[in-house]
Write a structure and sequence with these properties.
binds zinc ion; 5-stranded mixed β-sheet; Nucleotidyltransferase, domain 5; 2 domains; 336 residues; binds 5'-O-[(R)-(carboxyoxy)(hydroxy)phosphoryl]adenosine; alpha/beta; 19% strand; 44% helix; 12 helices; 10 strands
Length: 336
């Protein structure tokens, strides 16, 4: 079964053709980084207009790279939330149009379900039930996954998402946008033990996250550092980046450890943009006594392939969306 997956939830226009929910025949992502770069973050109005310009060529490229045409597609999966509403609507209405004119069934997908299931694009997959941590620019959530379509939220961020903290701290440190990759690059040259930033673990058994205090702490330290030449001799920007990065990684590892203990689970999937971070990957593999699964970086950041995987399982069960299906900027996984 061939599913065309489309994601326009934020700032990337992406489309992919996936065979039987496992094998990506193509995965095309049109990044808008250059468009938003001068603004230091995603501008929703610019994002939706860029999706409008890009959606047709991106889908055509995904079909041609897969060596298929729309006539070969058995179903379409499109992200309907959560995300930027103007961006989501471009993908959804485009899909409604092709579904109606070409008589191809479609389903609306929760973007977070896509991130959780992105691991099924890899050879090595976890056993159910598993724990999934989705860490991206918009979300930091821990789930217990008992089957395709069966997700229980165990914890989430109470304020900033982990990726958002990376982006904001990078901006404060003058490292540019998008921040995650820049922090990782800078941190390689630094000492992660140089500054002991707070680790927001919350209460003893809490599986929730909170990164805004850590972000403020880095920001206050940076202001002091900027005005103090002797501190600058002692501590470099790379040390600040490395110390911040390790504080985030410590928290993510501890929360996964707690989730594994509380649910008595052995398998854990770490997905979403922040899961590209090599320090996080390396420390998880070294420090967690569990079977850990990471999608390759291409499937960690937003992509159409993960949406096609989620769509495959829903279409197979007979689920169908219709022309009344709407996009939702907020869309908790409990409501799918
Ligand atoms: O999953 P994603 O592409 O989009 C959302 O759904 O948000 O994630 C983007 C986020 C950004 O905040 C970006 O800074 C972060 O993932 N990110 C990273 C790295 N690469 C991307 N964070 C830390 N280290 C990285 N290497
Ligand atoms: Zn995402």
């Amino acid at each position: 079964m061939l599913v065309l997956g489309i994601d326009t939830s934020c700032d990337d226009t992406s489309a992919s053709v996936v065979k039987d929910g496992r094998c990506a025949l193509s995965n095309v992502v049109h990044s808008q980084i250059e468009l938003h770069h001068p603004h230091g973050g995603v501008v929703p109005e610019l994002a939706s207009r860029a999706h409008l310009r890009n959606i047709v060529p991106v889908v055509s490229e995904a079909l041609s790279k897969a060596g298929v045409s729309l006539d070969d597609i058995d179903g379409i999966a499109v992200t309907i939330g959560p995300g930027l509403i103007g961006s989501l609507l471009v993908g959804l209405y485009y899909v409604k149009a092709i579904s109606y004119t070409r008589k191809i069934p479609f389903v609306g997908i929760n973007h977070l379900e896509g991130h959780i299931l992105s691991i099924f694009l890899e050879e090595r997959v976890p056993d159910f039930p598993f724990i999934a941590l989705t860490v991206s620019g918009g979300h930091t959530c821990l789930y217990s996954v008992s089957d395709f379509g069966k997700y229980r939220l165990l914890g989430k961020t109470l304020d900033d998402a982990a990726g958002e903290a990376f982006d904001k701290v990078a901006k404060v440190l003058g490292l540019g946008y998008p921040g995650g990759i820049e922090i990782e690059r800078e941190a390689k040259k630094g000492d992660p033990k140089k500054i002991s930033f707070p680790r927001p673990y919350l209460s003893k058994d809490s599986l929730d996250f909170s990164f805004s205090g850590l972000k403020t702490s880095v920001s206050l330290f940076f202001k002091r550092w900027r005005d103090d030449p002797s501190l600058q001799k002692e501590v470099s920007i790379s040390d600040i980046a490395a110390s911040f990065q390790d504080a985030v990684v410590d928290v993510l590892i501890e929360k996964i450890r707690r989730a594994l203990r509380i649910t008595n689970t052995k398998d854990v999937v770490v997905a979403g943009g922040v899961a590209c971070n090599k320090r996080l990957r390396e420390r998880l593999l070294n420090e967690l006594n569990a079977r850990i699964y990471f999608p390759r970086p291409e499937f960690c950041t937003d992509n159409g392939a993960m949406i096609a995987v989620a769509g495959y399982h829903r279409l197979r069960k007979g689920e169908r969306a219709d022309l009344y299906t709407d996009a939702r900027s907020r869309y908790p996984i409990s409501e799918i």
